[in-house]
Amino acid sequence: MKRVANYTLKHAAIKGIGVVGGFGSTTDELLTALQGGQKPQIQEFDKPGGGTLKAFKANTSGLSAFMERRALRRIDHFSRMALYGAHLALADGGIEKLDPERTALVIASGYGAVGSTFTFLDSMIDGSDQLSSPTHFSNSVHNAAAAHISMTLGIKGPNHTITQFGLSVGSALLSALSLFEDEGLDRVLFGSVEEFSPVYGYAGAYAGGYAGDYSSDTAERETVCGEGAAFLLLEREAEGFPTLSYSFEAVEGEPPPDSINALGEFPTRQAFDLAIAARLVGEARPKMVVGHVDGNGGPTMIVEMA
Amino acid sequence: MSPALPVSVTGMGAITGAGGTLGESLDAIYAGRRTPAPPVRFSTDHIDTYPVLEILGESDDGRRGAEVDATHTLRTTELALNAATQALADAGLTPDVLAGRRVGVCAGTTVGCALNNEAFYRSYKKGGDPGPEAFARMLRSNPAEQVSLANNFNGPISTVVNACSSGTDAIGLGAEWIRAGICDVVLVGGADELCRFTYAGFISLMVTSNEPCRPFDGKRKGLNLGEGAAFLVLESEGSLKKRNVKPLAKVYGYGSGCDAHHLTAPHPEGQGLEAALDRAFEQWGHDQRRLSLINAHGTSTPENDRVEGKVLAGRLAGIPFHSTKGYTGHTLGAAGAIEAALTISFLQRGVAPGTVGFKNVDPAIGIAPLTENTELTGNFALSQSLAFGGSNSALILGVGR
Hints:
The complex is a heterodimer.
Chain A: E1 2-8, E2 12-21, H1 27-34, E3 42-46, E4 52-56, H2 77-92, E5 103-108, H3 114-127, H4 134-140, H5 144-153, E6 159-162, H6 168-178, E7 187-194, H7 198-205, E8 224-225, E9 228-236, E10 243-252, H8 260-263, H9 270-284, E11 288-293, E12 300-305
Helix pairs in contact in A: 2-5, 3-4
Chain B: E1 7-16, H1 22-30, E2 52-53, H2 75-91, H3 95-98, E3 103-108, H4 118-125, H5 133-139, H6 143-150, E4 157-160, H7 166-179, E5 185-192, H8 196-204, E6 225-226, E7 228-235, H9 237-243, E8 249-258, H10 271-284, E9 293-295, H11 302-313, E10 321-322, H12 325-328, H13 335-349, E11 351-352, E12 374-375, E13 380-386, E14 391-398
Parallel strand pairs in B: 2-6, 3-4, 3-5, 9-10, 9-13
Antiparallel strand pairs in B: 1-7, 1-8, 5-7, 8-14, 11-12, 13-14
Helix pairs in contact in B: 2-6, 7-13
């Protein structure tokens, strides 16, 4: 790859990692899947016109270890995955209670709360506009997951959700690291969340994946969709912890390889690359590079860990 | 915390339900003209009608000064490109001038990133085969990306989806890119189209009025939705010096804070808004006493105006305030950007417009917004936003009159 332009932002230490996806809910399970070991279980969904869609679905039942089931009643799958990932990151970091005012939350999501979006549309189409569901509308906004996390964990600092499709993670990370300019903040809980929808799977499968070239070939190809949440608890740079630095680069050439076989196809998969890189760097301290490429031909972002 | 470096604004553009340009919008607002009416771009089966501020007529089709294929992108993107093109022209930033500069785009939206295409989904639900075009169209419509691609920019892009504070947050986050030395120029703003999905959604929440809205009024019934876009050009001091231009205004402070209280309702004491104000004043290095105007979120919903009114009557007491939602409608992800552009314009002209629709003081608030065009004596104003998810954000803007 040819690097055309770049800059680097402040570094941050990664104090905790939380992941949930089709592979499970630990970095061990993620690593095993990435290394080609235990494959996530594939679920199949009927597709209009026949055939099936394949997807790696995340199981959030473990969230009950952190929250009462009653509190989850009106929280959809999208936000549950994010809540689970956030709780796991805090637990991994040994954090029992956050300082509400000195903690910020930044979330990346390429597609947002697609389940609630279509459920709200169902309520309009199957019922009427007058009977459309306020609960589903409220949960359909892209920042619903951020809202539920802030309410559950009491995070009162800046709260941002960023969507940039295939570049969502890199773009959100830019905002997350920028927040460390604010001396009033000690921590940024950074994460990604993506929800599988058969509707998106159907449309995306036309071109062999979500980031395919829609202009030339719409022949259907096999795609395994995925979903999940990956969270990193970031603090100011500290000795003994993996550090993360971020470069924006306009890159010409092929993007680096990614983790599609283990996770399935979805736009914020790079957050899992970051999570596993942080885990490996924390153990052996090599330097790792994770690339973020915008599928529509936009710029590339590079994250380095050391 | 030491004050942050102010960031220069060198251009602005907007398209709103009040006018096809920022200038046209200002003319309508100062004249007290507003045109809320039932939606015409889509139909609904609601028994009652809820007026909106739609962009109709020639000004909604395509951005000014550039071509756009209306079938290729969402209308939100067209609105974004329209306002961004206006802003670049206002700043005098041509492709030749921008060559060699690092240019980023940070934009807010709500609708511009979601697949709520009803025709596609109805066909899918019936077992049809609607194809990928609606999905592909959404992927082609990310506002920040499209503004960047349309102009061959080479810097970072970020689309902020913090619901109704997205536009304000996009400006604050983009200003940080200038301060951090990441960009020489950043286009910051927001865009949102009106659609049946959001129309039905806000009505389902029972926060929409069946009459023209009445911000802060004792008999207010709810909001009127709107649509539009606004962009500001932020520029580094180095870039300004290179082309020997003076800024129109500056972003002096930005802050955000979260209520951590409720998915759609603000904290009853405005805790998140107070936190956002704390951060914005810290960045500015001054307190509210130097402000001469507050452009309030002022949606006209009972809850928003009560909570915001509490803060306005508390720590911000005595500072003239108004809401422009009666003229533009609530434009969701575009609102903060449109209101920042309007607020700078009010400071430039030295006159703040009144709050259309307001008549009677709400005893629960106890204070009244400006009700007519009022001369301003100072150079600094606050523009603030409250949002779903408990997000609150505030901008301190100033001009060098």
